[in-house]
């Protein structure tokens, strides 16, 4: 049995209109990891997830979940994964309790083994267990989908844009619960447009663009690939223009924002050059690159290569 939670090998998907959504994607997601799957809209992330869920048929390649090939062992593969979709999909006239009970029944979970109230309690919906789902707020509906994905206790949980439209407090509650699941051994795969979430939560990240994996590494390693830093320097007098010879902008009357490549430039040399230009240094701070910088560098590079 594969030691990967999810294994994709040469996965391809071409739709009937000729659009090539996945172009030979190969990816191994380690068991027990908190894995980020990032990419711009239309990159192929949702197609990949829908293939794993059995909602879209692949054109070529192989895919397995928890060691079960989705073609050879579809029932086992589907039982090994829980997916929280972007869309709010459930019957508005069922209560949250009924929704989870029915979904557990569809997965063949015996009544005595169902964890309906436990899951509702975990996602802070215990007090809404017996009201119509249509009366729930957007954030509550999103949390109900998380509980729904967990009724069969899958070892792999995929969260496709789970915090879209969720306020900050509820987002924090959701992530605390997801962290608990991951600490308990559940492999979590996250797609999100909130890059700070992926940077904070994920130990490994893959970036998808134009149906291909353009980056796949530890989050810390990817962060190290962003070479451009920002140096903010406050000087001893007001400036009306940027001193000649500096790739800088005026961030304030006395503050310069200087971009530099940390591979080729040193802060000391920049400060020396400013002093040589007759400027006194009052304060200095640096801004490290974040995941957004990494993301943009890889997607732009991929666009140039294409």
CATH architecture of the largest domain: 3-Layer(aba) Sandwich
CATH superfamily of the largest domain: P-loop containing nucleotide triphosphate hydrolases
Number of helices: 10
Taking pLDDT < 50 over at least 5 consecutive residues as the criterion, the unreliable ranges are none
pLDDT averaged residue by residue: 86
The total number of structural domains is: 2
CATH class of the largest domain: Alpha Beta
Secondary-structure element order, as H and E? EEEHEEHEHHHEHEHEEHEEEHEH
Query: Shape from CA axes?
Result: elongated
Radius of gyration: 24 Å
Q: How do the strands of the widest beta sheet line up side by side?
A: 6-7-8-3-9-10
The CATH topology of the largest domain turns out to be Rossmann fold
Q: By helix and strand content, what is the structural category?
A: alpha/beta
Number of strands: 14
Helix amount, in percent? 25-40%
| Major sheet attributes | 6 strands, mixed
Strand content: 25-35%
First-residue to last-residue Cα separation: 37 Å
């Amino acid at each position: 049995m594969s030691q990967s939670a999810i294994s994709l090998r040469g996965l391809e998907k071409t739709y009937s209109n000729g659009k090539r959504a996945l172009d030979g994607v190969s990816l191994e997601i380690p068991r027990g990891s908190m894995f980020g799957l990032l990419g711009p809209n239309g990159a192929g992330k949702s197609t990949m997830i829908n293939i794993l869920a059995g909602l879209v048929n692949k054109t070529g390649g192989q895919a397995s979940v928890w060691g079960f090939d989705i073609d050879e062992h579809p029932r086992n593969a589907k039982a090994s994964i829980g997916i929280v979709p972007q869309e709010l999909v459930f019957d508005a006239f069922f209560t949250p309790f009924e929704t989870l009970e029915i979904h557990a029944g569809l997965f063949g979970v015996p009544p005595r083994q169902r964890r309906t109230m436990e899951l509702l309690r975990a996602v802070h919906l215990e007090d809404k267990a017996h009201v119509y789902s249509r009366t729930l707020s957007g954030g509550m509906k999103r949390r109900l989908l998380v509980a729904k994905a967990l009724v069969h206790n899958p070892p792999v949980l995929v969260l496709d844009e789970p915090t879209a439209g969720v306020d900050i407090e509820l987002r924090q509650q959701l992530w605390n619960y997801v962290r608990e699941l991951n600490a308990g051994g559940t492999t979590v795969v996250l797609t999100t447009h909130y890059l700070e979430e992926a940077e904070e939560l994920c130990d490994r990240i893959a970036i998808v663009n134009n149906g291909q994996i353009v980056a796949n590494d530890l989050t810390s390693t990817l962060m190290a690939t962003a070479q451009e830093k920002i140096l903010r320097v406050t000087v001893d007098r007001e400036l009306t223009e940027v001193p000649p010879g500096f790739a800088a902008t005026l961030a304030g009357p006395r503050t310069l924002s200087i971009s530099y490549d940390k591979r080729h430039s040193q802060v000391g040399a920049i400060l020396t050059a400013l002093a040589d230009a007759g400027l006194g240094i009052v304060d200095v701070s640096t801004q490290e690159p974040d995941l957004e910088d990494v993301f943009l560098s890889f997607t732009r590079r991929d666009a140039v290569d294409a």
